[in-house]
Automatic annotation (TrEMBL):
<keyword id="KW-0862">Zinc</keyword>
<dbReference type="GO" id="GO:0000166">
    <property type="term" value="F:nucleotide binding"/>
</dbReference>
<dbReference type="GO" id="GO:0006352">
    <property type="term" value="P:DNA-templated transcription initiation"/>
</dbReference>
<keyword id="KW-0863">Zinc-finger</keyword>
<dbReference type="InterPro" id="IPR015915">
    <property type="entry name" value="Kelch-typ_b-propeller"/>
</dbReference>
<feature type="region of interest" description="Disordered">
    <location>
        <begin position="138"/>
        <end position="168"/>
    </location>
</feature>
<dbReference type="InterPro" id="IPR045222">
    <property type="entry name" value="Rpb4-like"/>
</dbReference>
<comment type="similarity">
    <text>Belongs to the eukaryotic RPB4 RNA polymerase subunit family.</text>
</comment>
<keyword id="KW-0479">Metal-binding</keyword>
<dbReference type="GO" id="GO:0008270">
    <property type="term" value="F:zinc ion binding"/>
</dbReference>
<dbReference type="InterPro" id="IPR006590">
    <property type="entry name" value="RNA_pol_Rpb4/RPC9_core"/>
</dbReference>
<dbReference type="GO" id="GO:0030880">
    <property type="term" value="C:RNA polymerase complex"/>
</dbReference>
<keyword id="KW-0539">Nucleus</keyword>
<dbReference type="InterPro" id="IPR010997">
    <property type="entry name" value="HRDC-like_sf"/>
</dbReference>
<feature type="domain" description="B box-type">
    <location>
        <begin position="1"/>
        <end position="40"/>
    </location>
</feature>
<dbReference type="Pfam" id="PF03874">
    <property type="entry name" value="RNA_pol_Rpb4"/>
</dbReference>
<feature type="compositionally biased region" description="Basic and acidic residues">
    <location>
        <begin position="156"/>
        <end position="166"/>
    </location>
</feature>
Amino acid sequence: MNNCTEHNRLENLICFECNIVGCADCLNKWEHKGHAYQSVSEIQKLGGNSKIHQRVEQLWKSIKLSTYSFESLTRITDDISNHFRQLHDYLILEESKLKIPIKKDLEKIGVDISTQINEMKSLRSIIMQIEKLNNQCSTTNKKEKEDTKSEEEEFQKDGDGNKEETAAEEEESMYSYLSRPSIDTSDMDTLATIINQCDQSSEFFKSDVFKKPHSYGNGYILGEENPKIGNDYSAINGNGDEQSILKSIQQFGDKYQSLKKGKSHINNNSLLKCNFAIRIDAKQVEEIQYNIKKSIDLKSISILTLGQNESSLLSLSDYSLKQVETLRGIHTSHSVVADSRLEHIYVFGGFDINGYQKILAKTLMVSHTAKMDGIDGGEGILACYDGFDHIYLIGGHNYKKQKLKDLDRIDRFNIKSQTFERYSTMNELIKPVFVVYTFATANGYIYMLTMSYAGPYGMVDGYEIWRFNPIIGEKQQTLHMSIKIAEGFSNVYNIYRLLAQPLVCFDQQQDTLYVFIKKHTFKIDINKKTYTKRYNDDTMDLSTVYSPRNIKTVFHRFSSTQSNIFVLGGKTYGNHIYSIEKDKWSSIESKDHCQREMCGAFIDMSGNSDQSFRRGVIQEEEDLSLLKFPKDLKNAKFLLNSEVAILLECRKEFATEGTEFPQTFHKTLAYAERFSRYKNKASIKQVRGVLSKQDLDEFEVACLANLCPENSDEAKSLIVSLKRFQDTQDDTLQAILDELSNLRKFN
């Protein structure tokens, strides 16, 4: 080590704040006051408590958290790909189904065309043999012979040809069509193009479809090989006599039999017509596109908690907390119902022991507060949504009623009529104080998890699951299954206290119930009535928690391969995550100062964590191009200037004598009259009648009628939402504008 140049002392310390190495005197100066500095020996002695080791642990936790986030995002990406792959596979399948009958007809017609072309080839070969025979038998006059001879002599003198070439030219003229390249008749698209280009069969004979005809070993020419006769044949020119021609015709007749009397017919496949018509519904296509977009949505996920001293959103991306001032003071004591199928969040009892509240899920604003008329109030009510029209309220306690502290009630709340009714009471074998959890399955059953007791002294030894199905009118609960747990614990005398305070969570998609007791995890399959028990030292030890039952658990499935249970202990017990697939607990590193005992919590997928809260109101996105209006205009009726003028005139006309209207009234009336395009009710009715037939929003109808643009480009620039009309739809938009213009002319 070096000595300090200023104090001549050993530089054996490092200041972590300033990142400076120096001696003790250097680091005792005022600029290093309050800074942490250590020597190598101190770092060695402190071990895991040193700044370096602490930083290593911080980095390790951060890496673990980032890796977890990376895996989660990867799984979500895979799920998105799988979703669209399934849609793609479905579209391909539907496309194939539609094409099957058409392809069958195409195959029939294609085979028939190919067969008929081969027949034409054979006939053409016979015709050419006849033409060759006629050429051989025809006589030429002497003058033609002399002219031919003189021409040949002259040709020979010039050295430009000979008799052999002349004979070759004659032969080539007879078979000129044979020298063209062959076209594969299986290429029906090319074949159809060639056929459509030819008006006469003679033109078709000269096309590339025909290739040099083949003949069999005996010299009889056909357009294609005949499997009945044999495949061993070679190309020859034929003898050109009548006998060979007759043999060719005979051979043709054996194959096609189309020259017989009454047999000259067209194949039935040739008479097939296109009896299919395709109709594409543009509106349904738009609906499908809309439904595809709605079938998958990517939003930030958070957990909304309604605690004793604050309500907040816990982001599941970075575990940051954001207070929700609109819900401050709402205490649920677990009695909260939130479901993605419901527009509202419902809170029953709690601090307001006889009341209930409705919270709009999109804005997190309390929209309704009322009393629970017709039923008892209470705290700790186990609330459960059946997935249809009712929320069931089970048990709870009401200490204001000294004679009936623990309630054995099963009441329900009708979501549509907003009314309460007494539905049933608990089975006499169920003690209200023993009911610890309730949940519903997709088939309509309501389940209750209760502690079970046995023996002469009624010792608690496990759990029982009772159920009833209100969908079919059941009111009496029946025992579904029993779970013996006491034998798994050594201290059976404290089993009551232990089993009365479990952490419980239900996975509705898999119909699986999770129960956490001390270091034991019970996984219960509701349908199969079976369960497994696991012990893991890594499991969060709940023995230190005074009342785990009062801590809220939340289940969420991130993807097909990742699902977690969140335990919200807040300031006192901390927040934790249990990975179902990994069977492992981990802590959430977040500065949570909220007391969360008896709080309500649930997954919020409305994207509220992405929005800002100002004075307790969520600032919603506004975009006129997408017809997204401010909250105060969502249910507004948009009027034409002409309609406003008529309404204000009526208001003025029917006002009592002496009524004074404010200046804004007169200015609005003057503006509406000045820019009124239609002077009477009949014209306004016609305009609305024309525009109502189009796919236009009420806002767009009012804008078009008030602004009166002359062309589609002007309309799109003035009314941005009309840009959804593609260039190909400009004619439709222009037709609307022209009709409005005509109405104004005759107004």
